[in-house]
Amino acid sequence: MSLQIQLSEHPSEEERSAILTPLLAHNLAKGGDDGHETFALLLRDPASNEVIGGLYGKVSYRWLLIDLVSVPESMRGQGIGQRLMHMAEDIARKKHCIGIWLETFSFQAPGFYQKLGYSEFARLADYPPGHARMFYQKVLG
Fold first, then answer.
1. Distances (CA, A) of 59 to 55, 64, 105
2. Lyase: is it a keyword of this entry (predicted)?
3. What is the pTM of this model?
């Protein structure tokens, strides 16, 4: 059998799934059930009930990944981000997580996460050029 490798510049969801399915099966066989759960803490505009920000997280393998955090610029500096992060930590503790991890850019909020007790564990320089992608973790006690 001759293997063919083909470039797909716009892969379909079906093609992605064909790659992902055997990978997930391998992960399950080696790492066990990841207990994958997602949640969101939604910031809603009181007048329109529209979601204007919040936090989106995923729990797997007893670690919480904070995937998205967004607070409208006009509301920054009022402790809303800190409240979201503390609420996420409470969720992580209730779900018996070992810790929390996240990624951010050097032009976003690394200082914010450091003030909350997160430590940098990896950095990808020049992503985007002139900046860095940074990875933080906090082990829960």
1. 13, 4, 22
2. no
3. 0.88
Closest CA to 76 of 46, 117, 50, 108: 108
Domains of the chain, earliest start first = 33-139 (3.40.630.30)
pLDDT tens for 21-80 read 999 999 999 998 888 999 999 999 999 999 999 999 999 999 999 999 999 999 999 999
Question: What's the rounded mean pLDDT across residues 84-102?
Answer: 98
